[in-house]
Amino acid sequence: MNVDLQAIGDRQEIAMLLARIAQLADAGDPGQYIDCFTPDAVWDLTDATDLPMDVQTISGRAALLAGVHERRAAGIQGPGSHTRHDVSSITVEVAGDRATARSYFRYYRGTDGIPTLAAMGVYADVFVRGESGWRLHRREISRG
After folding, report:
1. Residue 129's closest CA among 103, 104, 101, 95?
2. Fewer CB within 10 Å, N- or C-terminus of the chain?
3. Closest listed residue to residue 134, CA positions, set 13, 18, 26
4. Cβ-contact 97, 90 below 8 angstroms
């Protein structure tokens, strides 16, 4: 049995990064959240059905950070919003210093009581390995 321990470790690190991004969106420090992305990262929301936001493409850390602050101010995410992002069914393919992942997400509201599933869909992600480890380079968010 030929086991590629590096690939196993890379896939695990990327899966943990996906979890970290979700948890930081819900309750973490915006600076730590942004650090999970490459400087030229792209966040592409292709379908905002049932979400209190518009379809949008955001590029670069400064714009991503501004988006975090906008969503927090609107009560869509962050401390006190009583929302949660849940990520599962993660698949990761690694090719050198680049990787792709596909995962399902669920977005809940009202987590201070009986949670309501507000949205679900797919994250199609591209990751790049740099000096600080893996970072999210591109996220396409779709529904269905």
Report:
1. 95
2. N
3. 13
4. no
